[in-house]
Design goal:
seven-stranded antiparallel sheet; globular; 1 helix; mainly beta; 3 domains; six-stranded antiparallel sheet; Jelly Rolls; 2% helix
Length: 410
Amino acid sequence: MSAFNNIIPIMTSDTAPSGQVFSSGILSASYFSFYAFTSNLAQSWTSSQIAYPHYLGYKFDSTTEIGGYSISSRNLDGNDLTAMVRDWELEGSNDGFVYTKIDSQRNVVWVSKGEEKIFQLKEKVSFSYFRIKILSNNGYSSTVSTVGRLQLFDGKSVKTEKKLTIKSASTDELYSLSNNTLIHLPDNTTECIIEYGLEQGKYIQLDVPFDKHKYFNETPVASVNGKVFTHDIGKINTLSIKEIREEKSVVTTWYETKMTSDTSPSPLVASSSSLYTPSTVASWKAFNGTTTDSQDAWASQNNVTDAYIVLDYGEKKAVDRVMLTSVNGTGTATFGAKNFEVSGSNDNSDWTLLHSELNIPQWGNSEKRMYSFDARSEFRYYKLRTWGAYQPTLNYVAIGDILYGLREVK
């Protein structure tokens, strides 16, 4: 049992007593997602058997600060240790779409059932969504992952180190300060920063009269053991440090099109390589911003899973991400994009590849997923091509909604 304060309640369902548990899927009804948020390690969450990455997470009702987390192995059967997660990343988000990597762990081996491993963060972070993005298990023969318990620790119960030193621009000498004492440091090593460094804050504005200097010398001195330092009493020095930062925020702009036909509103134009027959679907329905039912979507022609859909904005748009929403309808989500690529063009003829995704985990009904590109691009036309199927019997591809966007620092 961890000495830290777990701020996730003991869950009795995915939404009770508070917050929301979510995952990329479950193997069966014996492995519900919320089982990873109870105290019973004889239960566990086990993912569906799909390609990595897998996801397991918890959404707080409001933005919440954490300073660490722990994962415990389950105590269920002979596959407890091999099915446990081995490589993963802890991620945080405030909208459930754009995630920031908080921590990364590789080659984590579990040696006993019910074993808890604690991971303290280098600095505290605040988000409303937290999830582990799982990249592999510990050698189990199929692509499933399991977690006995996932806990998140509040920022108050976890002490994180975040210190700094001061460097003179003219002499390259290093300084710290404490109790009206200006401390001269021998170097900028991690050990020096931890032992003598200042607690780092977002703003530093100091105007301190010093009545003492303290010099530390890490170099051995003949006939003397340990560190050598001197105090010069009576010298008064004033050190003024001002770090001024312009407040900026990250803003994501989604180009909402809300189309009502393939050519309206102007100047938007939607087109595709083919349409499902009979044509109850349409190209523009992938850009109308809704997924009300299975017909509120674009779907390719029968027996065609390699297809594309194009949006003409009528002018250049800066884009570095795309949001896809699967079809809303029983069984129809299995027709979602298994592989896709996004390309841009200014003449609808010469195309530049911007991003691609392969072997995407199977979609849920009306499920949103966001994909970030490596770089920002500006084009008039954007084409999404999709190919492949989740099952050999599936003979077309369908997408509920497509939304392009741009993330900027303003």
